[in-house]
Amino acid sequence: MLQTTSETSSLPPHKIIGVGVIWNEQEQILIDRRRLEGAMGGLWEFPGGKIEPGETVEECIKREIYEELGIGIEVKDHLITIDHAYTHLRVTLTVHHCRLISGTPQPLECDEIRWVNLDDLEQFVFPQANAQIITALKKGLGAR
């Protein structure tokens, strides 16, 4: 009997994701709660999504934020890039500071949205990879 093994099939999929830390005029940050039925359902996150072929990180963040929240943003300075492996998924998160420029956020692709102060972020449960984003924000990295 012929046995075949493929090392690549045992590796979790890798997603490259653009993430926006969106600030409003009151210096609050927009977070959203993932839908319960999806991966990591019910956890809070900084909005963003998968980079499409031929798309820059900045274009991805603008598109995803518009699709998920119905708002226009300005993508600003790079905050941090994180490589993280969960048991089921590998992610590379490229995170940028963003500024709300038009619209009122709506929970189009999530269960809930909130504007929160930087000091209040630790009251919410985020996916593991997001801890490094919160640490970078508290250190004041990048210009808002």
Protein architecture, described:
The protein has 144 residues and is an alpha+beta fold. The chain has one domain: Nucleoside Triphosphate Pyrophosphohydrolase (Alpha-Beta Complex), CATH 3.90.79.10. 18% of the residues lie in helices and 36% in strands. It is built from three helices and seven strands, in the order αββββαβββα. The strands form two sheets. A four-stranded mixed sheet has the order 4-1-6-5, sandwiched between helices. A hairpin with a 4-residue loop joins β5 (72-85) and β6 (90-102). It starts with 6 loop residues before the first helix and ends in a 6-residue tail after the last helix. Mean pLDDT is 90; it is low at 1-8. Keywords: DNA damage, DNA repair, DNA replication, Hydrolase, Magnesium, Metal-binding, Mutator protein. 8-oxo-dGTP binds at residues 34, 45-48, 130. Its EC number is 3.6.1.55. Belongs to the Nudix hydrolase family. It is an enzyme of class 3 (hydrolase).
Helix-strand blueprint:
Blueprint lengths: L6 H4 L3 E10 L5 E5 L10 E2 L2 E3 L6 H13 L2 E14 L4 E13 L9 E5 L13 H9 L6
Parallel strand pairs: 1-6
Antiparallel strand pairs: 1-4, 2-3, 2-7, 5-6
Short description:
The chain has 144 residues and is α+β, with helices and mostly antiparallel strands. The protein has 3 helices and 7 strands. β5 and β6 form a beta hairpin.
